[in-house]
Amino acid sequence: MSQQVSESPEAAQMIRDIGDIHFINIALIILATWMAVSLVKRALPWMAERGPNRMRLWLLGAVPIFRLMATAFAVAWIIPLVFKVTVENFLVIAGAVSVAVGFAFKDYISSLIAGLVAQFERPWRAGDWVKVGSDYGEVRSVGMRAITLRTLHDDIITVPNLKLWDSNIANSNDGERTLMCVVDFYLAPHFDAQRMRAALRDVALTSAWLCYDKPIIVFVEQAEIGTHIELRCYPFEMRDQGHFISDLTVRGKEAIRALGAREATAPAAA
User: Which of 12, 19, 96, 174 lies 20 to 30 Å from 208 when distance is taken between CA atoms?
Assistant: First the structure.
């Protein structure tokens, strides 16, 4: 009990007396910071719309940076007005802030650790085509916190490295210069399977995007709605996989019709 009594004055000394806190100055600092941030939020986008195109992204990107710097400056200015900044108090405040920051940035720290692990396990490399969750694209850059993917739709997606802990990573080429593309066909029964396999193989062999050093596989299996045929082959250039798949799909359908076969349709829902 005596220990608690002796510690309470020390805890109270961290905060200045009410009469010593300049609330007007604190209010003016907050108001000035809010006005500066509001001014920049309006001025920089206005300048970006009317300035050179090469400066537009730079000006727009400067808005959140200025807001963060202004907020940090205001907090650093207000703290000495409220707290008695001594070595002991600084250590107490720094410890509390460290716990709060560590909790708030736990995902960020987890991403950094995952990024370090990824440097050794190498689930992805720059230039690989990977699928993380529902996102599929080419790895454009590998950072310590995240990787960026460029999708087939030319979108840029930032994927945090912490996905390494809880997601399956599908790497389509794993450092190789090409990858397998798969085109699916579903056919109704009653067709010549041997002729169909040969025709689809010819479709792949005559594609302008084919890599001739890799095998062509025509896989056939029975499915609920008909016969499932997979045409598996490799494009010469990985970035052409969209053109390659489109070409195989269009000409594959033509080959199916030329042999008198029909594509299967899903049964109507009851």
Answer: 174
